Amino acid sequence: GSWAGAMGHTQWMPEVWLNMGVDFDGDGRVSPFGAPDDSFAGTARYLVERGKWRRGEAWGYEVTLDPRFDFGLADGKTQRPIAEWLKQGVRRANGQAFPRPTDLARLSIPAGAKGPAFALLPNFWAVKSYNPSYKYALAICHLSDKIRGGGALLKAWPTDERLLSLAETQELQERLTALGFDTGGTDGRFGEKTQYAIQSWQKSVGMAPADGYPSDIVLSRLRGG
Questions:
Q1: How far, in whole angstroms, is CA 62 from its chain's centroid?
Q2: Quick check: pTM over 0.90?
Q3: What is the pairing mode between strands 60-64 and 91-92?
Q4: For a tag site, which of 27, 58, 104, 224 has the least CB within 10 Å?
Q5: What residue ranges in the chain does DSSP mark as E strands?
Q6: Backbone angles phi and psi of 194, in degrees to 5
Q7: Peptide bond before 209: cis, by omega within 30 degrees of 0?
Q8: Quick one: CA dihedral 209, 211, 74, 55, positive or negative?
Q9: H or E stretch including 219?
Q10: What is the pLDDT of residues 202-214, one digit of tens each?
């Protein structure tokens, strides 16, 4: 069993099995173990009922951003119709048109301005309701595309900037906090508040692009290097 209490194929807590479980194979009980039928059916129910999954809609798209784009808007929170993002130079990375320009989307750059960018639609947040980790949700959504025959992301993760260790991230947070930028704590874990703090600091010192990415370059600059 799981040390945290989660159980079964999809690692749910007992409360979720009791309320979201489905007897898909018709054997008279909801089973999180053995044949995966009940687990898959329960997971689908969860995404629809708790995540508000929208049938027939995409989870999001890989996009490209205009070099002059305000990367502070790619915060995963600012929501606008795709038609509005188009006016700001946002395009699908594969060159195809957005099928539904009226859809509301939020932009995200998980690896900073040098990495891939995404326009995230409501179905992405449905997946995120299942597991609050942004990276988990993105991996699941990308895998779903590949299962349907899609290829790799068109823009690779950057290699010229190194992600920080936990201790280095904590130092970064401490330095930003000392300068008056709220990181939401100094626990060494990178989250939304730390990203916003980095972006605010980058703008204050004229560091472009202000993308909030916690790289070794940012830490070196904070150290005065």
A1: 12
A2: no
A3: antiparallel
A4: 224
A5: 60-64, 75-81, 91-92, 104-108, 117-120
A6: -65, -40
A7: yes
A8: positive
A9: helix 216-222
A10: 999 999 888 999 9
